[in-house]
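Attaching the record inline, Q. Sequence:
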Amino acid sequence: MKKTLLAVNMIAALITTSVNAQTLQEGINHLYADRFTSAVNTFQKILAVNPNVIEATYWLGQAYLDMDNNDAARQLYDKALLANGNAPLLMVGKGHVLLLDKKVEEARQMFESALTISRTKKGDDPVILNAIGSANVDAKLGNLDYAVEKLTAALIRDPKNAEIALNLGNAYRKKDPGIGGSKAYEYYQMALQLNPNFVYPYIRLAKLFETQKNWDLYLENLNKAIAKDPNFSLAYYELFYYYFFTAKYDEAEGYLKKYMASRTGEKEIMDEHLYAQLCWARKDYECAINKAMTVYNTVGAEKVKPRVLRLLAYSYLGKNDFTNAKKYVDEFLAKEKDPLAPADYTLKAEIYAGVGAPCEQLYGLYLDGAAIDSVLQTKIEYMNKAADYFKAKKCTKQEADMRLLVFNTRKNANPASLVNIGILYTQANDYLKADSLFQAYNVAFPDSIYGYAWRGRVNFSMDTTMMVEPFITNLLQNYDKALSIAATNKVRFRSQGITASKTLAAYYVNIKNSKDTALTFVYRGLDIDSTDASLKQIRDMLEKSPGLKQSNTPKSPNANNNKPVSAGLKPSGPK
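Structure, as predicted:
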């Protein structure tokens, strides 16, 4: 009974649709061109004449979804299903909404029910298969394997349907990022062959070449779209952003005007946002703020899109109005439901720095930004820019932390960079961290002087009394090694050798009270640079100090029963 009744209803709907086929297609064309208001008006006109045109109801819901008005689509499909409970196309529309509502299992049940009801002796209905595939491609939680399966089946059932070929290309591109491009290209070309007047595949081809940074083919396909349909708004929109991002603002404005002219009757307030972006790019921040605030005040704080708030934050930041910038970046972050981009955390950090946020808080923001970037190379680029930012802000500890994070993130990091990171930690007074990095550097480069010289310096900084273990042992061993390496290239390593010589001499005079051992290190330093005035002065002083012990037998540095005897020597610590 139900199947018979459904068949009668479907025949009636098809007859009605045939009368309105041209009008329905006009609405679909508006939708493909992103003329959403025109699409909605077209579908509503059809339904005003006959509320039971299933296809018009389905496409009206799709228009609402494209406008991010999910509530309107949900209400439309729910109401329509009350009157047409077994309409498969409406069930797919409802399943689409359920996917967007993250109700994955309920959506799958709705799709399968729609297939069951619409199935005939010839197999599944290609219209329903196509709609199910399209829904799963569109929704973030859609099952892309399921989408490919249903769209492939749809194309087998209706091999001359250009829209199915287009959707199958979309499914492959989204399912296999990077490697799915060839399949996507194949099906986009098929769509054009099946229907040479179908403009939208040119946009999909352009977006495919955009990911490959093949700008010649990107522009070629956009221009082909315009040649086919001079009023195809989406092509002008893409061209606007192409010239916007290549900083050709006059050309961008020209295409923005063409975009708006192609949308006669749309009167979309968000067009003001496009102009606001152009003003911001030209550093006309007052213009950008005025146009963005027009959008904000027109739609209201509750309904304004997050990207408008982000633009306001950027524009106030451009004016160095950090108070208002913070207001809008906080609103943006609270309202944004889509995943944030690393640049969003950079924006917040720059604004928060302007209102006096400490380096530690700014580091946390950059860390959050790095965490969400899943592409290794761009993650590393982001962290390097963050480290440079901390360097400019003189947040030395945070610069060191970020550069160490870059080192640990790289797959085959060069340990040579450890010494520079260790120096940063030394400057930030984080001596333990610095010591561990210099030690790792020494393991990787046992014949390099830099790790030994710096490790000697930081161990002195951790124990200026030169009497506490393990710091004193580390100091003695590393400075002795640095002094030996300095002797192999006396010109290049003069500075490190002289510093090591003086520090070791000071230790044996002041702590060990051993003139002979101290003089040994002084002579090793003079062997590196016989003209060094301070070493010559120390040598003369020691040779004239009969009160110092002549034995070089060291006592424990913790033996406090001997008072250090000063010979006018001061150990060299980090500068």
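Residues 438-543 form a domain with the Serine Threonine Protein Phosphatase 5, Tetratricopeptide repeat fold (CATH 1.25.40.10). DSSP finds 30 helices and no strands in the chain.

More tomorrow.
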